[in-house]
């Protein structure tokens, strides 16, 4: 059997998914099931004067209707699971249904439960709510200003936390030869998973157990949080994520809707389902990014960066979502030096409450916001000292011999060869030829640009001791059980909760390789708290890194036991047994052999086991990583800008990523493509806008630009391979690299194209209108052309 | 969004003012206004039916006439709420005389929020302008009718 690790196996899950045979939460139908609809505030900020469900209760099919007043004594507040240390964090109470105030458009005020979804919707329309509207604030910087409307009365200045990290860099800035300052707006994004959220709850009055099927990336975290909120002990609460159609971070959070249906199912003693509409997905499912950043970089005239200083106002929305406080702090502030050997750095973050949809992790979660600012600052610095951005990168990139490299905040970058990835990218793009062509085209009034992003990110979340130290209210290790059945078939139970990443295939490949069992003999089970001991879920590019490593360790336990059984059967010492490709054989005597399947059968029959050995064959392991992993690479974007229309065309996109050992190259390619379109989407197309009253102006696909396949060239991808030295599989994680690296590459390219107009920075997304206006404000392109 | 404009009515400013104050006339002329029930002096409970494209909804609301100065001006405050969201209109209406006819000038602001605003954002301003101009055209017709009867 050839190596399974490293081969492009087709996705095992696609056999059901692409034939429409997957089962998503909304596909669940239970006898006697009812349907919930949520009454949501059309105001971003208002006092609830009256919520009257009496008319709704008279509507056909309506079984029950509840308000915040009905829930408030029985359902606890929804907590965040991340409390950054030394940040004086204030956690505002977050009721599942608002009691006397609504704080963002979409905040739930009542639930109507009916026999059909349509009757529930009609019932929702019949609920009478009287609001007294109040002024709202949506921008995180504006929220920090004196006199801004307060989101929560007792949280002064709307500051949920104030977090600082790093040394005192003032002295360096005071004496630096060159200081570059820039403000960046990381616009708010909507994750837009293909499957909206859904939840089905069922109460079993006989056993007093509640089962919740929900679209979640982390069923065990949901169980832990919901147990506290609902007062149902963990052993009586089962959370199941069946097929989940994408999430990108938006299904980490423990949402009010899931709590409402759980409470209602118990109260009514009937199963209750709620499924989000696309409109609700835009208004109430967590958003991403949304920073106002003030950045300064100090350096020498000859191109050595000496310090970087970041002050960020991070929008958290109206309440603190599950992972929200960790995203703009730990996952952002600790890595603002990027892939550069910057000796000193500091980051200061204001976590701001606003009258907007809660913000949580979105693909990359903090690291795109950090990578963008440092990659842009390198270009602005290069411009300021009149050097080529590539030269500045070459001067400042951390050298390969410096690994493991400790960054200014104490993170230890595990391994890297940044120059190697850059060199590989420059084999694909002839940089000198590009600059010549650029110059020629400028003479003709045509503007092309090139942008680099020589990024690093931290993922594979993560070492649990560090998780605790940075305020995550949980562990970040992972569990695995590899259960070999009597016939030698294998079921793998993982605490990771893949929802589109294809780990049913990746994990089977790891087991197939290590146990020598064909991949089709392996089934991967995930997402059910009643089947899986414990798990922390799928996010932060951790699934293969941490979950995969746990499977590897479980495999070792299985192999160790099977080896003993084989040695016993072969009547030789354990050390005399070799194990290769599923066969145990006596060293030097390959004919004397026991297959893995035979050893498995012996383990179960237990007719003749080594003395003292327990029957059966399975291994359980809990893997707690000793460090994060640090994927890196070089991305190059080439764009052309039409000066007459402001239209940006992405002409080429080159991505050289080093994600360590690759288990399935096809899945890695898919992850990179997906990440790229989301990252490029942020650079050029996507962005949430609120009006001054907190109304979401971009609440549908008419007004929120989702990137389409036709917007992109064929991506040119390549890899270098620098295994993670501390990960048992050598993998580093790939889920977020594309979204982290690509945004600054594209913006750098557009700014390079616009350099002749004297334009150095524009806020994202770089829509034709914005680009055209910038060109026009600089006197238009004809003028510049004439001047050349 | 801002709403402003003016309309000539072929009656005296006094008559025009009276028309604008008459609930029966308002129900006839204002698009989507189904009923006006007086609650107190200058305050009415309003029932409206408005739609943007395919998203139509019934709204319950209030209409208030504030600071009325006979034959000269008043301030209209309308709030409505329904499944499609909410509408709030604040509008100053001024009556003056021009070429022996009433010139009605209006200037104000409308806020629309909730699901309709979320999906119909691009159309709202156009729709609002259209509804308001329909209203004033209907008023002009009403005025012409009154002038004829008089």
From TrEMBL, chain A:
InterPro entries: Ald_Oxase/Xan_DH_a/b (IPR000674), Ald_Oxase/Xan_DH_a/b_sf (IPR036856), Ald_Oxase/xanthine_DH-like (IPR016208), AldOxase/xan_DH_MoCoBD1 (IPR008274), AldOxase/xan_DH_MoCoBD2 (IPR046867), AldOxase/xan_DH_Mopterin-bd_sf (IPR037165). Residues 19-135 form the Aldehyde oxidase/xanthine dehydrogenase a/b hammerhead domain. Keywords: Molybdenum, Oxidoreductase. SMART domains: Ald_Xan_dh_C. Coiled coil: none annotated. The keyword Oxidoreductase applies. It comes from the Bacteria. PANTHER family: ALDEHYDE OXIDASE 1-RELATED, XANTHINE DEHYDROGENASE. This is Carbon monoxide dehydrogenase. It comes from Sulfobacillus thermotolerans. The lineage of its organism: Bacteria, Bacillati, Bacillota, Clostridia, Eubacteriales.
Automatic annotation (TrEMBL), chain B:
It comes from the Bacteria. CDD domains: CoxG (cd05018). Pfam families: COXG. InterPro entries: CO_DH_gsu, START-like_dom_sf. PANTHER family: BLL0334 PROTEIN. This is Carbon monoxide dehydrogenase. It comes from Sulfobacillus thermotolerans.
């Amino acid at each position: 059997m050839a190596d399974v690790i490293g081969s492009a196996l087709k996705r095992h899950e696609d056999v059901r998914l692409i034939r429409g045979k997957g089962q998503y939460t909304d596909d669940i139908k239970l006898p006697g099931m009812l349907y919930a609809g949520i009454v949501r505030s059309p105001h971003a900020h208002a006092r609830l004067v009256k919520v009257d469900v009496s008319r709704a209760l008279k509507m056909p099919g309506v079984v029950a209707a509840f308000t915040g007043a009905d829930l408030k004594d029985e359902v606890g507040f929804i907590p965040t699971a991340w409390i950054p240390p030394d940040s004086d964090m204030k956690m505002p109470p977050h009721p599942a249904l608002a009691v006397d105030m609504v704080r963002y458009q979409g905040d739930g005020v009542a639930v109507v439960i009916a026999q059909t979804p349509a009757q529930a919707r009609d019932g929702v329309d019949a609920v009478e709510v009287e609001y007294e509207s109040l002024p709202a604030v949506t921008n995180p910087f504006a929220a920090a200003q004196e006199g801004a409307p307060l989101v929560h009365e007792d949280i002064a200045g709307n500051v949920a936390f104030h977090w600082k990290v790093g040394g005192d860099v003032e002295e360096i800035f005071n004496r630096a030869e060159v200081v570059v300052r820039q403000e960046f707006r990381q616009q708010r994004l909507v994750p837009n998973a293909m499957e909206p959220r859904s939840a089905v709850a069922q109460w079993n009055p006989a056993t007093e157990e509640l089962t919740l099927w929900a679209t979640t990336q982390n069923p065990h975290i949901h169980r832990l949080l919901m147990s506290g909120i609902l007062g149902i002990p963990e052993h009586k609460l089962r959370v199941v994520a069946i097929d989940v159609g994408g999430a990108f971070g938006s299904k980490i959070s423990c949402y009010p809707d899931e709590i409402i249906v759980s409470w209602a199912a118990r109260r009514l003693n009937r199963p209750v389902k709620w499924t989000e509409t696309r409109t609700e997905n835009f208004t109430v499912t967590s958003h991403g990014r949304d920073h106002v950043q003030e950045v300064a970089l100090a350096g020498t005239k000859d191109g050595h960066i000496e310090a970087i200083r970041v002050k960020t106002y991070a929008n958290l929305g109206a309440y603190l979502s599950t992972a929200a406080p960790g995203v703009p702090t730990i996952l952002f502030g600790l890595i603002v030096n990027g892939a550069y050997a910057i000796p000193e750095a500091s980051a200061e973050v204001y976590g701001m409450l606003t009258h907007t949809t809660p913000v949580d992790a979105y693909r990359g979660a903090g690291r795109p916001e950090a990578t963008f600012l440092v990659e842009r600052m390198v270009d602005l610095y290069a411009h300021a000292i009149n050097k080529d951005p590539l030269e500045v990168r070459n001067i400042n990139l951390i050298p390969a011999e410096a690994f493991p490299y400790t960054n200014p905040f104490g993170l230890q970058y595990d391994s890297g060869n940044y120059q190697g990835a850059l060199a590989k990218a420059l084999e694909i793009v002839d940089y000198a030829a590009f600059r010549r062509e650029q110059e020629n085209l400028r003479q003709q009034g045509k503007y092309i640009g090139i942008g680099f992003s020589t990024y690093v990110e931290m993922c594979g979340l993560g070492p649990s001791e560090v998780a605790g130290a940075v305020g995550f209210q949980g562990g970040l290790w992972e569990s695995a059980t590899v259960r070999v059945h009597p016939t030698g078939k294998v079921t793998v139970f993982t605490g990771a909760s893949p929802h589109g990443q294809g780990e049913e295939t990746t994990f089977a490949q790891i087991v197939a390789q290590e146990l020598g069992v064909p991949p089709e003999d392996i089934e991967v089970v995930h997402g059910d708290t009643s089947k899986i001991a414990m798990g922390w879920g799928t996010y932060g590019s951790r699934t293969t890194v941490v979950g995969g490593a746990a499977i590897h360790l479980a495999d070792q336990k299985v192999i160790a036991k099977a080896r003993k059984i084989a040695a016993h059967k072969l009547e030789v010492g354990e050390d005399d047994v070799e194990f290769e490709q599923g066969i145990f054989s006596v060293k030097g005597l390959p004919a004397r052999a026991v297959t893995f399947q035979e050893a498995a059968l012996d383990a179960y029959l237990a007719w003749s086991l080594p003395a003292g050995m327990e029957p059966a064959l399975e291994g359980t392991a809990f893997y707690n990583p000793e460090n994060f992993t640090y994927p890196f690479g070089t991305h190059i974007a080439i764009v052309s800008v039409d000066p007459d229309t402001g239209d940006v065309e992405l002409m080429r996109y080159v991505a050289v990523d080093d994600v360590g050992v690759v288990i399935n190259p096809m899945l890695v390619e898919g992850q990179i493509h997906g990440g790229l379109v989301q990252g490029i989407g942020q650079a050029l197309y996507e962005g949430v806008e609120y009006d001054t009253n907190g109304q979401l102006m971009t609440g549908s696909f008419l007004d929120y630009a989702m990137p389409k396949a036709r917007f992109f060239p064929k991506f040119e991808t390549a890899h270098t391979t620098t295994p993670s030295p501390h990960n048992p599989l050598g993998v580093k994680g790939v889920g977020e690299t594309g979204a982290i690296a690509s945004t600054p590459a594209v913006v750098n390219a557009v700014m390079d194209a616009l350099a002749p107009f004297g334009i150095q920075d524009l806020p994202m997304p770089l829509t034709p209108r914005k680009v055209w206006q910038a060109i026009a404000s600089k006197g238009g392109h004809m003028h510049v052309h004439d001047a050349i | 969004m801002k709403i402003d404009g003016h309309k000539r009515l072929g009656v005296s400013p006094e008559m025009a003012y009276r028309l604008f104050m008459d609930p029966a006339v308002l129900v006839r002329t204002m698009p989507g206004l189904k009923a006006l029930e007086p609650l107190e002096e200058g305050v009415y409970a309003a029932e409206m039916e408005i739609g943007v494209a395919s998203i139509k909804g019934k709204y319950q609301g209030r209409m208030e006439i504030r600071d009325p100065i006979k034959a000269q001006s008043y301030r209209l405050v309308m709030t409505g709420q329904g499944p499609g969201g909410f509408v709030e209109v604040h509008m100053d209406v001024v009556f003056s005389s021009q070429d022996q006819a009433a010139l009605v000038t209006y200037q104000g602001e409308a806020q629309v929020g909730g699901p309709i605003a979320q999906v119909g954002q691009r159309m709202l301003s156009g729709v609002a302008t259209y509804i308001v101009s329909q209203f004033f055209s209907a008023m002009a017709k009403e005025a012409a009718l009154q002038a004829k009867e008089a």
